Amino acid sequence: MSNRKQRSEVGRAKRWVIKIGSALLTDNGRGLDRTAIHAWTEQMTTLRQSGCELVLVSSGAVAEGMNRLGWDRRPHELVSLQAAAAVGQMGLVEAYESNFQAHGLHTAQVLLTHDDLVDRTRYLNARSALRKLLSLGVIPVVNENDTVACDELRFGDNDTLAALVANLVEADVLVILTDQKGVYDRDPRHNDNAQLIEDAAAGDSGLLEAASSASSSGLGRGGMATKVRAAELAARSGTVTWIASGREAQVLEKMAAGEQLGTLVHPASDPLTSRKQWLAGQLQSRGRLYLDAGAVRVLCQSGSSLLPVGVTGVEGDFQRGDLVSCHDAAGVAVARGLVNYTAVEARSIIGHSSAKIEQLLGYVDEPELIHRDNLVLL
Fold first, then answer.
1. FRET label pair with 31: which of 25, 69, 182, 236, CA 20 to 30 Å apart?
2. pLDDT tens readout for residues 133-180
3. 55-82 as b/e, with b when 16 or more CB fall inside 10 Å?
C-alpha cells in the first residue's frame, strides 16, 4: 500500500495517544505498580521534552480500587465495580501527577464516557478542552468515567476509548501497549511457529481473525481483538496504530526512534479521505451556511477555518456540533463540517469579525464557525 508510513516516520509523529493496559500498570492484582508507573512517566517525559503532544489513556483504576478495598477478585456486580473505580481513580491520578510534576510537567484528569464522543455537542466540548490542554503543554490522563457509566463497565474497554480519543484530537499515532509483542498470525502461546504481523491495513479481516486467538487478562477488559478493532476506529481519522509490548525496555523511546518492533496498523486511505468518510458517513447535514467569494477562496485554497465574517446566510435549525454544509453564492456545496454555534447564534454573528462574538452573544466558545480540523472540502 503506497500510503503506509515507515516506522521512522511514525516515530516522528507530533501528537500521540498512548494507552497502557492494566497488566502493565498493576502489581499482579496488588494495586498499582508504582515502579512501573515511574518508568512510564520517565519515557513519556522524554517524548514530551522532544516536542511531542501526549494524551495518556490509562487503565488501572479498578485494580487499584480492589487493592485499597481488600478485594482479591474483580467483582461482577456493577455497583461494586463502580465503587472500585471511584476509589482507585484517586491513587491512579496521584501516581501520574506526582511523577510528572517531578519533571515540571502538569497533568489533567479527564473522565469520559462513550456518549461524550458520540453526542456532537459533547464531542466538540471534549475536543476543545483536550486541544486547549495540549496547547498548554499539559498531559491529559484519560479514563472512562466508570463510576457513573454503566455501559462502559459492561461492554467497554480502554482500547476503544483510546481510539475514540485519537479521533477526537486527530492523533498522528495511537500507541497501544500490552503484555504481548504485537499481533501474531496465530496464538504464540500454543504455536511455536507463530509469526509476528509487522504491518497490516485497518479492516484486514485476516488481522482480526489472528487477533481473536488471544485471550484477555483477568484484570483488563480487552484482548488483542479489541486492540485491532480499536486500530480500525482510529484509522477513520487517519491515525496509525502501533501495538507493541510494554515489557520491552524503553519501548516508547524505541518507537520514537523508529525501531522495528510490534505491529503497525495503517489506515486504508489517507487522513483527509478517512476524515471525510467519517464525517460523511456518521452524520446527516442539519443546515446550510452560505459563503461569500472570499470565504470560498480561503477554504478551498488555504485550508483555513470558516470564520463568521465570511458567511452571508444561514439555513436550518442546527445545534452546536451538528454537521452543516457550506455553499457558495450559486448554491454549490463546497464543504461540510461540525459547526461550533447553534443556528440562532450563527445568525447573530455572521458577517462580523470573530473579535465581536463575545459582544454579540455575551460569550465566546470558539473564534471559528467551523474549525478546519472539523471541515472537509467536497
1. 182
2. 999 999 999 988 766 665 544 435 788 889 989 988 889 999 999 888
3. bbbbbbbbbbbbbeeebeebeeeeebbb
Enumerate the domain spans of the chain: 7-271, 283-377
> Considering the domain 283-377 in this protein, what is its CATH number?
2.30.130.10
Estimate the crossing angle of helix 224-235 against helix 158-169, to 10 degrees.
10
The residue assigned the cell 497490516 is 200
Number of other residues whose CB lies within 10 A of the CB of residue 252? 26
Q: Does domain 7-271 have CATH number 3.40.50.1240?
A: no
Asked if 62 and 75 count as a contact pair (C-beta separation under 8 A), the reply is: no
Q: Tell me the C-alpha distance between 201 and 249, whole Å.
A: 27
Q: How many residues would you count in the chain? A: 378
Cβ atoms within 10 Å of 190's Cβ, excluding its own? 8
